[in-house]
Amino acid sequence: MSAPTGGFLGSPEFERIQYAAHDFLIDRITELGSSFADWPRDRLIRVVRQEVGLFVASRQIAINEREVTAIADALIKELVGYGPIEDLLNDAAVEDILINGPHSIVVSRRGVLTNEPVRFRDNEHLVGFLRRLLAPLGRRLDESSPMVDARLPGGGRLNAIIPPLAVDGAAVSIRKFHSGFYTGDRMVEVGALSPELLDFLAYAVRQRCNLLVIGATSSGKTSMLNVLSNYIPSGERVITIEDTAELDLQHPHVVKLESRPGGYEGAGQITIRDLVRNSLRMRPDRIVVGEVRGAEVLEMLQAMSTGHDGSMGTLHASSALDALYRLEMLAGFAGFAGSDLSLRRQVASAVDLIVQVGRLADGSRRMLSVTELTGMNQDMVAMQELFRFSSSPTPRWIRTDARISNSKLAPWERIHA
After folding, report:
1. What are the Bacterial type II secretion system protein E domain coordinates in residue numbering (predicted)?
2. Domain with 165 in it: what CATH number?
């Protein structure tokens, strides 16, 4: 059966019929004394389509069979699925779903934002949907807790904020994660990096270099961290620490830790810093921090420089130099008691490489730069760029003239001389 035309789907007429049919179905549920959610999906589909057909016939609504099916499918998603956004969640090409109030849904495909024809009825409908989605996860969304960050059962991260904090209606951001996508070969295939650069980074991981992956929001930091983790030897124990579990490490020995938001007045909160501290007592070979953005920076730097070589993390920064400034700022906020010079020395001894990723104007994601930290130059951290991305005249990665100084990496340069 062919799909209904795009003009009907999402139109005011479609919504009017759907809402009336929804009320009709709710009444039928009450009459039957049952819950559609408890039925097998094939039976649910059959019954809902039958009931919608009866509803349309009894009201003498002038729509065809394809449009009746579209109404029924929308109601099935509304009753037991993800409502108007279920098809978007199931669309492998969709990376992000951005809901800006009930009537505006925007998605990102390959980094490009487009508007979608689907919508929620009103803000009450949207907030009710969010509460139904969050209830099994043990998260609240109400006036006492108007912001929430949660991991979806099928994989993905949801952030929601509701009025009065969100002026134009509830604002929702859903970041989808694609399990099994993150391989080095796949990244080379899509042009995110070159074979030589992949070989260098794989060597750096195997040599237990400490790495920071930096970039802006949605630039591919987590994807790159997943790729790099593939080269951790299988005999090592890896502990990942995140606010919301996003990493999909293809490794046989991974312990995944996730922070916990506090309840009323912060009671029961477990922070990333708490988890990093605890991970040091769990006999880790490597520690992977999904995103460094707070006081945990101190524990992470100490772990990197005191025997947990090969650890990794991501950081929001626009350049390697900006990453150093941000590390200093976060350490200062965390109450670092030493001087600026002692902090810089610790950063220089802890971090071996800074890997920058970015999203270009066409939406494609690329590795932009690889920078080596070479020690201290007077009172500043010394750095040198080893690889950089050039988009002209054709996209390519350039190996700079800088000579690698890190003893762990020097053999790679001799081999590829």
Report:
1. 81-359
2. 3.30.450.90
